[in-house]
Amino acid sequence: MRRVDAHNHFWQYDPVRDAWIDDSMQVIRRNFFPDDLAPLLEANGFEGCVAVQADQSDTETKFLLDLAASAPFVKGVVGWTDLRAPFVEDQLDKYRDQPLLKGFRHILQGELNRCGMLQPAFLNGIAALGKKGYTYDILIFPDQLPFAATLCGKFSNQAFIIDHGAKPYIRKGEMDQWKKDMQAFRKMDHVYCKVSGLATEADWTSWTPQQIRPYIDTLVETFGISRLVFGSDWPVSLLAGSYERTVSLVADCFSASEQEAVFSTNARQFYKL
């Protein structure tokens, strides 16, 4: 099986830009580049990865594309552009000669306006992505799930993928409302979900696979095997454990044939790798 890690990050640490990395996150307060990830991928049987934006700037997109150009195992990039810009299609056209750019993401989880994704300017940006054939990664917290469902319902031909299972409140042991809101995506075949970043939503030092398994089971019930995609969320995942433990947490939930889909086929299909 040619595994793909469909969600990781690279950055050159900047204490101002990366202020979200607070004192509790010392382990990731440094640079992370492809050379740091390569041995982890090889040791865990991964052929490649998808690099996802961590900063909201066009500079970030260029940074990731430049890294991908020099690291063949980076099979795709999810970048950032201002989807609310009035000339968003022109902005997207700048990347027409960048086949490694697969899609875009906006950090909706940090928006003060929790339903800002439904504003006309943002909807116009999503429509532009569809015209250009790009995917969209949905980064939200559970309270935004109903708005995300409405967004996805408006664009049945747009490829969406929900990052980190919408970050359920595992640390608090809360599940019922998140599970209920997830059901809206059950019949939306154009919406995928990443089984990623779940351990960092639990207690970093004391989480167990048994604690997280019910959340993964819910994602299986909602999206089925064919719309689930593995992502490590490295290096953020290091806050809650090693790369190997992140991989085994998910792999142990699936049979060999299911792993083929979750760790390889689905990511390749969604991102057209």
From TrEMBL:
MF GO annotations: hydrolase activity
Domain Amidohydrolase-related, residue spans: 4-273
InterPro entries: Amidohydro-rel (IPR006680), Metal_Hydrolase (IPR032466), Metallo-dep_Lactonases (IPR052350)
A Pfam family matched in the record: Amidohydro_2
Annotated coiled-coil segments of the chain: none
Protein family membership: Belongs to the metallo-dependent hydrolases superfamily.
Name of the protein: Amidohydrolase-related domain-containing protein
Organism: Flavihumibacter petaseus NBRC 106054
